[in-house]
C-alpha cells in the first residue's frame, strides 16, 4: 500500500473513532475535510462526534478541555499553526495544569493536531510558524512525526494518552509517501527513531528535516558516516537514545525549524554538553532568533534551515 | 432519580440556611488563618455573596457539574465538598481536596462534579460548556453551571462560549455574580449595555435576580436548570450581589478608595443570612449556627493537624500517566 502522510492521519483518526466511542473531533471546516485528515469522517461518524465549530478557537479549545474532563477523548484540528498563539492560555494554563493542580483527580486526554505546520510556501508571516518548541518548553507532550507510518502511530498514541498531546504535522512532510507492507500500529510517545546508522556524527533532525538530513547523509556518505536521529517526540525527549547514539559518534549536529533562542535545538545541545559524550563542539541549524517568515519565496526559504547549512555543520564538527 | 442537592443538604430552607452559615463561617475562619499566616497567598473571600452559590446549587442534582472562579469557596462548599478538606487545601496539606497542589484558586472535587475553581477570569465558562456537551453526548441529563463575576463579561472567550452554547442548545447555566466590581473597577464603568443584554443577544434566556436572596436565586436557577435539563438550551442569570470584604485579603493591608464605607454598610443591610434565617421556625437558626461552629472547629483541627506534603513529591501528578519530568538540576 502507498500511504501518504495526510492519509495516515486520516486513517489514525478513523481507527481511533471506530475503536473508542469517546473519541470526537472539533475544528474548523472538518466536516468538509478541508485540511485532509478529517476527510469522510462526518459521513461515517456523524455530527455528534465530528463537530464543525464556529471561528472561536479559544472557546472550542476550552470546550474540548471540558469534554476531556468529563469522559470524552477530543481531538482538535487547528487550521493554521499560528492559531496556537490564540489558545496558549487554554492549552498551557488550563489543559496542561489540571492534573497537577487537582492533585491527580483528573487527566486531560486532549489531542491537538496541526496539519501543515511551519512554512507552506507563500503563506507569509502569520501562517508559517512552527511553534513546537514553545509547547515542549511549557511541558505539553509534543510530537512531530516525519513519516506517514510515524504520523499514524504517534497520532494513535496521542489520542490514547491520558494527558494533552500536541501533534505537529509539518507542511513540508505532507508530500512524503511510504510503501507500507505491514499493519499500521500505534507507536509509543517518547521513543526516538534512528533512520540511518552512522559512526562519525549524530544528526538530530526534527520533523520534515529528517528527510533533508537523510539526503545529505547519503550524499556525504563517502566522506562522513552520519547517523540520522529523529526524536519524533520532543517532550518527553528520548534522552537515553541520544546518549547511546553519542556514545557511538561523539559528535552532534541538530537541525531544527524553531527560532534559535530557546528552541528545542538549544535544549538538545545543552543536555548533550552537560551529560553526554562529545568529542567536538556541537552545532545547531535553526531559524534565526525571533523569525518572522517573509512572503517572497526566496526570503521564506532563506530563513529556514537548509541542506547547505547542514553540509557545512557536518564538515565543521569533523574538523 | 435523586432529589435536588441532597449531597449538600440544600433541599430545605433549613439546609440552605445552614449552608449559608457554613460558607460564612468557613470564610471567617479562613480570614483568621490568613491573618495568622497559616494560609499563604491569601484568599478572595466570598462573604456577602453566599446566597448565589447556595441558591444555584440548591437547584442542582449531585451528578450536575460546576466550574468556579478565584472566589470559589462558596461554590465548592455548596456543591457538597467537605469543609475540612477544603480548609486543608487552603493550608496546603496532603489531606486537602487537591492534596495541597491547588490551593484556594484551584479547589476541585471531581467526584462531586466540581471541575475546579479557576485562577483565570472567565476560563470556567467554556469548560462548563464542554461538560454540558459531554453530558449530551453520553445521553445523560446532567446540567453544567459556570459561575463567573462581572469582570468576566469582558472576556472574549466567555462571549464565544455563549454563542457555542446557544447554537448547540447545550444544558448549561451561566451565572454572573455581579458584585459591582472587578477588583477596583466598577462594573458601571466597564460593561457596555447590560449583562443580561449580552446573553439575550445570543438568544439565551436571561434574568436578573436579587443575589442577596437565596430563595429568589433558587427559583430563578430552578427554572433555568429545568429548562436546560429538558433540552431547552442554555440560560443566564445575573445575580446582583456584593462582597462585604476586600477583593483579596491583601486589600486589608492597603488603603484603597474605590468604594465608600456607606456603600458597604448599605449592602450589609441586605445580608443574605438574616433573610434566610427569617424563614425558619424560632430558635432553629441558632441551633444550626451552633452545629456549624462545631463542624468548623473540627475542620480546623483536622486541617491544622494534617500532614504537609513531601518536597520530594512536588512534581507528583504533573502527568496523568505518571511521567517524571527531568529535575531542574543534575548536580
Ligand atoms: C483573565 C484575567 N485577567 C485578570 C486577572 C486578575 N484578576 C483576578 S480577579 C480579578 C477581578 C475579577 O472580577 P470579577 O470577575 O468581577 O470577580 P470578583 O473578583 O468580583 O468576584 C482580576 C482582574 C485574572 N485572574 N484573569
Ligand atoms: Mg466582580
What can you tell me about this protein's structure?
The complex is a heterodimer of chains A (319) and B (331). Chain A is of the alpha/beta class and 319 residues long. Chain A has 12 helices and 14 strands. In chain A, the strands form 3 sheets. In chain A, strands 3-2-4-5-7-6-12 form a 7-stranded mixed sheet, sandwiched between helices. In chain A, helix 1 packs parallel to helix 7. The N and C termini of chain A lie far apart (44 Å). The model of chain A has no long low-confidence stretch (mean pLDDT 97). Chain B has 331 residues and is an alpha/beta fold. Chain B has one domain (6-307): Rossmann fold (3-Layer(aba) Sandwich), CATH 3.40.50.970. Helices cover 39% and strands 9% of the residues of chain B. Chain B has helices at 13-35, 50-57, 73-78, 83-90, 124-137, 156-167, 195-201, 214-229, 261-268, 272-277, 284-304; strands spanning 65-67, 144-149, 172-178, 181-182, 185-186, 206-210, 235-240. In chain B, helix 1 packs across helix 2 (50-57), helix 2 runs parallel beside helix 8 and helix 4 (83-90) crosses helix 11 (284-304). Chain B is globular. The interface between A and B is large, with 47 and 51 residues. Bound molecules: thiamine diphosphate and magnesium ion. Thiamine diphosphate (TPP) binds at residues 70-71, 119-121, 149-152, 179, 181-183, 247 of chain B.
How is this structure best summarized?
Helix content of chain A is 36%, strand content 20%. By secondary structure, chain A is an alpha/beta fold.
Primary descriptors:
heterodimer; A: 319 residues; Rossmann fold; 5-stranded mixed sheet; 12 helices; 20% strand; globular; B: 331 residues; alpha/beta; 5-stranded parallel sheet; 11 helices; binds thiamine diphosphate; binds magnesium ion
The helix content of chain A, as a percent range, equals 25-40%
Question: Helix/strand/pairing class of chain A, anyone?
Answer: alpha/beta
CATH architecture tag of the largest domain in chain A: 3-Layer(aba) Sandwich
Shape verdict of chain A? globular
H-E order of chain A: EHEHEHEHHEHEHEEEEHEEHEHEHH
Largest interface: A-B, 47 and 51 residues
Task: State the name of the first-level CATH class of the largest domain in chain A.
Answer: Alpha Beta
Main sheet: strand order of chain B:
1-2-3-7-6
Task: Assign an overall shape of chain B.
Answer: globular
Order of secondary-structure elements of chain B: HHEHHHEHEEEHEHEHHH
Strand content of chain A: 15-25%
Low-confidence blocks of residues of chain B: 1-5
Unreliable stretches of chain A: none
**What gap, in angstroms, lies between the N and C termini of chain A?**
44 Å
Biggest sheet details of chain B: 5 strands, parallel
Number of strands of chain B: 7
Q: CATH superfamily assignment of chain B?
A: Thiamin diphosphate (ThDP)-binding fold, Pyr/PP domains
- Structural class call of chain B reads alpha/beta
Radius of gyration of chain B, in angstroms, nearest whole number: 19 Å
How does CATH name the architecture of chain B? 3-Layer(aba) Sandwich
CATH topology of chain B: Rossmann fold
